[in-house]
Amino acid sequence: MPTMKLPLLVCAFGALLFTGAPRAIAASFDCSKATSATETLICKDAQTSALDDKLQQAYKAALVAVAPSSKKALIEEQRHWITYTRNICQDEACLQQAYTARIDVLARNEKDIINKLSCQVPAGGTDCVNVVAYRDPSVRIHSFNQSLAQAKHSGTIVSCSRLVNLPVGTVGSNNSFGGICTLQYGSQRKTVEICDDDMFGHFELQAADPGNISDKNLVDFTREHCFGG
């Protein structure tokens, strides 16, 4: 007896019964188990979900390319990015910008995860000072929030986009850190310049002009308020 071919529509319906209704899957997590507002935003938007998939592939490639000595730093950096960059977004536009920037960083497939050291002349100075620009700007957030609490300043630092260190003297001497960060108090957020140090208890916070943010301005701010003894 010749084999009967079922109509395409019937086959498709049978497959749907077998597999269940299609559902969105982001690469780094199962959308059916999304619990946070950020995960929900990612899953409901096709473009953002696609970026999540692209980022996961870029991260896997970066883990393969990185030297064993820098692997721990890359893993910590990625966790910080999720907590302090991705998860503070409140809309798809912010998420897509964050994903695109992070993918660009991971796609370099750098062997060593290192911070950049340079020598810069501060405003009004003649001699250059050592400046360490951090690849992961989130590593000082905990300390910044401790300084905020000690100064009895309201709000919490929820993210940083830039972080510099102006070390004084040799290893083990004072380190003066400055960041361009997001301060949140209640439902309000604003961009601030913040600095503190490891030895003398210096601390300063001021509103930053989002249209006039530069590493040079951050170095000048940190040197003026939190540098040295």
Write up this protein.
The chain folds into two domains: 24-106, no CATH class; 116-226. Helix content is 41%, strand content 21%. It is built from seven helices and six strands. The protein has helices at 8-19, 37-44, 46-65, 68-84, 92-106, 141-150, 215-226, and strands at residues 116-120, 129-133, 156-167, 175-185, 188-197, 203-207. Strands 1-2-3-4-5-6 form a six-stranded antiparallel sheet. It is globular. The termini are far apart.
**C-alpha termini separation:** 95 Å
Flag low-confidence runs.
1-23
Report the strand count: 6
**Strands across the major sheet, in which order?**
1-2-3-4-5-6
Percentage of residues assigned to helices: 40-55%
**Structural class by secondary-structure content:** alpha+beta
Mean pLDDT: 86
Q: Specify Rg, calculated over alpha carbons.
A: 23 Å
H/E order of the elements? HHHHHEEHEEEEH
What would a concise description of this structure say?
With 229 residues, this protein is an alpha+beta fold. It has helices at 8-19, 37-44, 46-65, 68-84, 92-106, 141-150, 215-226, and strands at 116-120, 129-133, 156-167, 175-185, 188-197, 203-207.
